[in-house]
Amino acid sequence: MINLLLDRGANIDAIAEDEIPLLAAVKYSKFAMAELLLASGANPNFQDSKGMTALHYITWLRKVVVSSTLKLSGIIRLVLTSPGRMVNGEGDHDAETR
User: CA torsion angle for 11, 82, 7, 24 (degrees, to 10)?
Assistant: First the structure.
């Protein structure tokens, strides 16, 4: 379904209820969806009203189960290597929204 929406030009970063689809995917542990959204150009730097990004939620939602940890590692790598992502010694910061 998401591929159909993206193919038809849906706004990948549409804000609804203080989050974009990427944040919703991460919050509900839909990591394959989060990977697809990132690969399709979702904004990894978007901050909700709490200042939380996808990376913050991924870190907060860490799983103990090995398979989930492996999935999280892939998502974190994608978030950190997505265009526009800036990480410094004080943690991850969004240069575009500050």
Answer: -50
**93: enclosing H helix or E strand:** strand 91-93
- The predicted model scores a pTM of 0.64
Neighbours of 16 (CB within 10 A): 8
What 3-state class would DSSP assign to 19? strand
Environment class of 2 (CB within 10 Å of its CB; exposed 0-12, middle 13-18, buried 19+):
middle
Q: Is 34 helix (H, G, I), strand (E, B) or coil?
A: helix
pLDDT tens per residue across span 64-79: 333 455 555 566 666 6
| Domains annotated on the chain, with CATH | 2-93 (1.25.40.20)
